[in-house]
Amino acid sequence: MANEKDYQGLYDRIAALREQVASRLSSDLISNPQLADALTKQIDDMLASVVDADTKATPPPDKGLAALAGVGPEAAREFGITRIPPGVEAYDETITSERIVAVGDMYYLWQHEKIGVFRVVQKLQELFRAGTVRLSGGSGAFALYQFDRRDVLRYTQRDRQSAYKRIFNYGGAPVPTGSRANTDFHKLFAHFIHQVTLFWRDKRISDVIRERAYDPSFGSIAIVRRAGLDLRNNLKWLSFGHLNVLRVEVMQLLEEAFKILNADDVKNLFGADNAWDVVEEVLIRYFNERLVTSPRQRMGVTGREVLRWLAQPHILQTTRAQFETLLLEIAEQSEEWLTSAQAMNLAGRPASARVLPWDQTQPTPVRVSSNGRGRGKPGVSPVRAPAREFEYEY
Length: 394
Fold this sequence. Notes:
Elements: H1 4-24, H2 26-31, H3 33-56, H4 65-69, H5 97-115, H6 117-130, H7 139-149, H8 157-168, H9 185-209, H10 221-236, H11 243-261, H12 264-270, H13 275-287, H14 293-311, H15 320-327, H16 331-343
């Protein structure tokens, strides 16, 4: 186990090694920046192996206190031979992926709730009971009957809405007693996706401008990693409870609903080609709603993929080449989510201030007077304040 003198000497030697390597290979590092990543990773791995071995070493019964305090035969003659622990387990490595994956499924379900899939099935049930539609003994009619009979065994709509409120702060339902709404989710989720899209946009620009672009200003992995860790840590405490069971049940409910909507007798009733056509036809005919089916559904699919990626340890990767390779998995999903959300005024693309304060949802816009002239700083082009992004109904 390490004493204070060895502990200090280890980090001094590691620092001297880094300096020596950088000095001897300075010319090669300029022409081949990837070499710096490889060398840094090797040195970091060496240091990590030493620290890990020291962590696993069995400490003395008194944890080294007697030597430090100068008590008993093991009293330290000098400060340098006292024991010093290397630290504790890193906070960001203690997240269970299963719970974050469950949150991704709940986000997917929320978008289908907002589209109105379950409301459409309920409306079909009402029409079926009233006998006002031409459904009788077909596969869709029989599935509607079974769907209604099993309703008493499922979580209610109120249960689902309360779960969405607790996890995402979406919807207007009250949270369960003793819980609170996750008011930070949408801000952190949109911020992470925005940083991912910025990273790949900057990388594409750098690849065009320079032959071998490696300037950290062209895509910072540290900003992306910090935004992802903030979101993941936020979800850590909001993913306990019955969430896991509830999302499995509601996923089954969604599958059953689409089997009803895709039944031949139901599609023939509305002259539809597929289940989504039935959903849109019912929403227009009976609810007189503006359709947001396509962007909402893609937000659900891409948002779930982003959260699934975040559930894995990819975000903890520190090597630039490996991080970029892993991040590429959600590059297009993030861009598509942001474009869909922006089209519905649910998120924006801030043009400045890449890193936002914790309690600020978006960069502060310049106020615009009635004559259109900005009242902000001189030389700054006035921009109109965007509509409020983070309301109940996401």
